[in-house]
């Protein structure tokens, strides 16, 4: 199944800046009928409203607050595409005295937040003639980086869940895409000290919509991501994306 965003309703978490804002703009450029800008602070979405008018609808979503997500799923009951972009990063090595607290924080947003969004919106997406769910993961989903080891662990867990969601949401006719950016020029990228090698957020938006149109499970937006994809893609095709009998033993 392939998904085209033209005339569709889209919801983007973390929509007010960085990659999220680029996704909102990319969806509108491609003819989306409406974009729900899902943010913790509704005022932060006002620049998008000023730019696009009533095609952008601010909606409150906090990935650590299940009630806000459930309420958003009710309010955005006409959504065709959910893009879970919001995430958090703590730059903590594994042996840091703050590592456990950092990991708890990152797991709550990056992993449990993903589950909260998927569970709340799965019935909504099931009701739409064409639907898709996109999860922003990372190259850190596949390789741990010691300077932010806890973040890498949370993204590895999120990627594992995204694979499971591909099967379950796929069974109801919802396409799933797992996005794996490398260094991107965002506040998070700056926090990680990646300014010198960071690339534009628009690359991520472009990769998402291309993956949706091509019915690809993985999206590799930037230079580093593409370097990861070259050796990883054969494994992905033969194991991750293959129809295999479930036998964890």
Structure description:
It holds the Pfam family adh_short. It comes from Roseiconus nitratireducens. Belongs to the short-chain dehydrogenases/reductases (SDR) family. This is SDR family oxidoreductase. InterPro entries: KR_dom, NAD(P)-bd_dom_sf, Sc_DH/Rdtase_CS, SDR_fam. The chain has about 250 residues and is an alpha/beta fold. It has a single domain (about 10-240), classed as Rossmann fold. It is about 45% helix and about 15% strand. It contains eight helices and seven strands, in the order βαβαβαβαβαβααβα. It has helices at about 20-30, 45-50, 65-75, 100-125, 150-170, 185-190, 200-215, 225-240, and strands at about 10-15, 35-40, 55-60, 80-85, 130-135, 175-180, 220. A seven-stranded parallel beta sheet has the order 3-2-1-4-5-6-7, sandwiched between helices. α4 (about 100-125) links the parallel β4 and β5. The longest helix is centred in the middle third of the chain and has 28 residues, at about 100-125. It is globular. The two termini are about 30 Å apart. About 50% of the residues are buried. The mean pLDDT is about 95.
């Amino acid at each position: 199944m392939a998904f085209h965003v033209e005339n569709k309703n889209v919801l983007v978490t973390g929509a007010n800046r960085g990659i999220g804002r680029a996704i909102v703009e990319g969806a509108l450029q491609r003819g989306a009928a409406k974009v729900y800008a899902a943010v913790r602070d509704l005022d932060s979405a006002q620049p998008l409203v000023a730019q696009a008018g009533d095609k952008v609808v601010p909606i409150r979503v906090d990935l650590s607050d299940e009630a806000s997500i459930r309420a958003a799923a009710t309010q955005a009951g006409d959504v065709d595409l959910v893009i879970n972009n919001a995430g958090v990063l703590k730059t903590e090595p594994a042996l840091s005295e703050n590592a456990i607290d950092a990991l708890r924080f990152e797991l709550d947003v990056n992993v449990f937040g993903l589950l909260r969004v998927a569970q709340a919106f799965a019935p909504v997406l099931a009701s739409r003639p064409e639907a898709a769910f996109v999860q922003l993961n990372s190259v850190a989903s596949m390789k741990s980086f010691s300077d932010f080891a806890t973040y890498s662990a949370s993204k590895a867990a999120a990627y594992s869940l995204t694979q499971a969601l591909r099967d379950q949401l796929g069974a109801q006719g919802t396409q799933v895409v797992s996005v794996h950016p490398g260094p991107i020029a965002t506040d998070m990228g700056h926090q990680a000290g990646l300014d010198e090698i960071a690339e534009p957020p628009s690359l991520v938006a472009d990769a998402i919509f291309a993956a949706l149109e091509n019915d690809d499970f993985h999206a590799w937006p930037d230079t580093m991501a593409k370097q990861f994809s070259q050796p990883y893609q054969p494994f992905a095709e033969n194991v991750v994306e293959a129809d295999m009998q479930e036998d964890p033993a």
